[in-house]
Amino acid sequence: MLVADDHPIYREGIVRAINDRKDLELLGEAADGREALEQIKRLEPRVAVLDIRMPELDGTQVLSALRRDGVKTEVLFLSAFLEPELAYRTVAAGARGFLSKESSRQEVCEAILAIAAGGTAFAAEVQAGLASQIQQRERAGGAVRPLSKREAEVLGLIAEGLSAPEIGERISVSTTTVKSHLASLYAKLGVSDRAAAVAEGMRRGLLE
To answer: Considering only the top CATH level, what class is 144-203?
Structure first.
């Protein structure tokens, strides 16, 4: 893992939390975006935890540079600001997670593990904001976005009446990841709850 944040006290807290875990390994830390980019390219950590707003390069610029250069490190953003538009742009750029800086150290570590395992990790406020942004953009564009394979699978499981934890157990992902899939699923279907998602899925022929 690599941690980048220009606030030394906050960065040290995250670093300490990672070092206290036997299931996480810290490879490096950085105090600004340019240093973070250089270290990520050199060390190629599985996950990088980045502050959104940093000197030299901000977090989204770091992520864009990583994707441009084909670096496979996944990114978890931490921010004191959870604006929906900002969250949408980070996800569109390829971020796998977005948490508030008010999240506990345990929540941050669990998010890192979820992302390292191929999942996602988004704060509840971010999920709601993402759903709103996607709905607004779809209404403006008039386009219907197809469900991903995983979203279609989750839709089928909520149609069976499974809860988010039960779905997580069935498909071997965390409950947080399931909730992220649900938020995206609801946004694409233009609904706000399970029952409406199932009804809309049936209307569109997505469920038998």
So the answer is: mainly alpha
